[in-house]
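Write out the 3D structure for:
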Amino acid sequence: MKKLLFENNDVKIELENGIIMTTWKISFADLEMAHKAVALRLKYCNSISYPLLSDIKLIKSSTKTARDFLASKKGAEGVTAAAILIDSVIGSMMGNFFIRINKPIVPTKLFTDEKKAKMWLANYV
């Protein structure tokens, strides 16, 4: 059962079966937005670490500083593993670029199927 933790015009944060899920509702992610999203996630997770399912289907571009931050120790604070949910060639390019170039500090994989992403993340609950 999904539990809504927070929602605004930029991001939705939910918890389901020990997996924190963020849905980005924006098309462009900059460093300021990345900081806000991480701060919100940490606030609503109450200092508990979770695997993260990040739905970035609407994001069309992001800044290097945002990607660097999200891949860093500070950006991945409270995350045991990350599944990035995509549904387009642009999303695939962005996700693969993020994984290969920014090298996130937690296990990170791209998925087009939410159910498969959750199955993979269940190993990190």
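The chain has four helices and eight strands.
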